[in-house]
Design a protein that fits this description.
There is one protein chain. α5 (169-172) links the parallel β9 (154-158) and β10 (184-191). The protein has helices spanning 17-26, 86-89, 123-136, 144-151, 169-172, 204-211, 220-236, 243-252, 258-265, 271-275, 321-340, 350-353, 361-364, 373-376, and strands spanning 10-13, 30-37, 40-45, 56-61, 64-69, 93-100, 106-108, 116-121, 154-158, 184-191, 194-201, 282-288, 294-301, 311-312, 315-316. α9 (258-265) packs across α11 (321-340). The protein folds into 2 domains: 10-93 and 110-236, no CATH class; 243-286 and 303-372, no CATH class. The longest helix has 20 residues, at 321-340. A 7-stranded mixed sheet has the order 1-11-10-9-8-2-3, with helices on both faces. A 4-stranded antiparallel sheet has the order 7-6-13-12, with no helix packed on it. A two-stranded antiparallel ribbon has the order 4-5. The chain has 377 residues and is of the alpha+beta class. The protein is 32% helix and 23% strand. Bound molecules: iron/sulfur cluster (SF4) (2 copies). The site of one iron/sulfur cluster has 13 residues, from α12.
Length: 377
């Protein structure tokens, strides 16, 4: 290493992660991290590493999610749960303004000044946030509430070493290792009873925080172990998606009979869109007080699977389940690219796990492939 250059990765003993949480609190951040609630790993406020899901992992398949004990006490030894970080940056329900009957004056909701520090963000989730940035922050109709929360947030990513069976980020080039979009990056290492992390920074905020810790430079062996764990994680992913091929297949097949089969299976429950970290549809609802003196306008998440979402001038544009499923998949994997320059899917697998009838996007897409003599045999 050149005399003046700084090491790119340090070793953080597990016991020191609490110090990072404490420093973030001192800087005014509300720290959100993974924890075990209602038999799932979800994201909620944490003040102590004691709240992390030590020794738990998630076993996922189409329509199935279960927590199981690990044979070690890893804090981040799971993939992703039903929550994503979008619930903090783009809340499921948000009051926009209140209006008084007397004055007919609208009072906008005060800005949410919370500064979030997100602990345990996976690479696929960083990609999902970058996608939502294109819609809510960097596009022509920026949402100031999203932009403020997102720009003020601190991201501590954790490399994913335990992908679920439903994950396919490696084929989408969105994981399992985080490459950008974070302030600090951790890789959890548990070997011979030693529990520690590789830690590095990728922003001035991250470097400033790391500068307050006195950490030794990571050994070549520890770095190598981190790389090995990531390579092993990528190898474990058996589901795959060829994003470019998927796009072409969908654009070429709007009338394919498989849409009817999908429509017959799909319950239009909207689970897939609720758990998807990139889906961004919303609707507005007006609520009047019982006295009729005030009314409020609320924004809440909506889904292209609801009938109401396509209601225009007295009719529903997508009245069948098949039409709604086609809208979702074609937008997510094809026309999203035309709109935003990237696929709307980051391969997190949530829509597969949380679909009650186990519809699997990686499998369904193959049904649109032309039947060749080989596949027909
Ligand atoms: S479409 Fe499914 S796999 Fe892709 S980002 Fe959304 S929830 Fe994850
Ligand atoms: S694809 Fe599955 S999760 Fe999505 S709306 Fe249909 S039944 Fe629900």
């Amino acid at each position: 290493m050149n005399k003046k250059s700084k090491p790119s990765a340090y070793t953080l003993p597990a016991s020191q992660l609490q110090k990072i949480i404490d420093l973030l609190h001192e800087q005014g951040y509300t720290v959100i991290g993974p924890q075990r609630q209602d038999n799932a790993i979800i994201y909620d406020e944490i003040t102590s590493t004691d709240a992390l899901p030590a020794g738990w992992t998630d076993v996922q398949e189409g329509g199935t999610y279960q927590l199981q004990r690990r044979d070690d006490d890893a804090w981040f030894g799971y993939a992703v749960g039903p929550h994503s970080w979008k619930q903090f940056l783009f809340p499921a329900k948000k009051k926009l303004f209140t209006i008084e009957r007397e004055t007919f004056r609208a009072q906008a909701e005060p800005a949410d000044k919370t500064r979030y520090a997100f602990l345990g963000v996976r690479s696929c989730e960083l990609h999902a946030i970058a996608i939502q940035d294109k819609v809510f922050r960097d596009g022509p109709y920026a949402d100031p509430a999203y932009s403020r929360l997102r720009n003020n947030a601190f991201f501590i990513a954790v490399n994913c070493t335990e992908p679920a069976a439903t994950c396919f980020c490696s084929s989408m080039n969105t994981g399992p290792g985080a490459e950008s979009g974070y302030d600090l990056l951790l890789t959890e290492l548990i070997d011979s009873g030693q529990h520690e992390f590789l830690i590095s920074s990728a922003s001035a905020k991250g470097r400033a925080l790391l500068g307050k810790m006195e950490l030794p430079e990571a050994t070549p062996a520890a770095r190598e172990r981190g790389q090995e764990l990531l390579a092993r994680a990528a190898d474990k992913m058996h589901r795959r998606m060829d994003a470019e091929k998927a796009r072409k297949l969908l654009l070429a097949n709007p009338e394919h009979p498989h849409w009817q089969e999908l429509g017959a299976r799909c319950l239009s429950c909207a689970n897939c869109t609720m758990v998807c970290p990139t889906c961004f549809c919303s609707t507005v609802e007006d609520v009047t007080s019982l006295t009729g003196d005030t009314a409020e306008r609320w924004r809440r998440w909506d889904s292209c699977f609801t009938m109401g979402h396509s209601y225009i001038h007295g009719g529903h544009i997508r009245s069948s389940g098949a039409a709604r499923y086609r809208q979702w998949l074609t937008h997510k994997l094809a026309t999203w690219v035309d709109q935003f320059g990237v696929s709307g899917c980051v391969g997190c697998g949530r829509c597969i796990t949380w679909c009650p009838v186990a519809i699997d996007v990686t499998e369904e897409i193959t049904k649109f492939e032309p039947v060749t003599q080989e596949t027909a045999a």
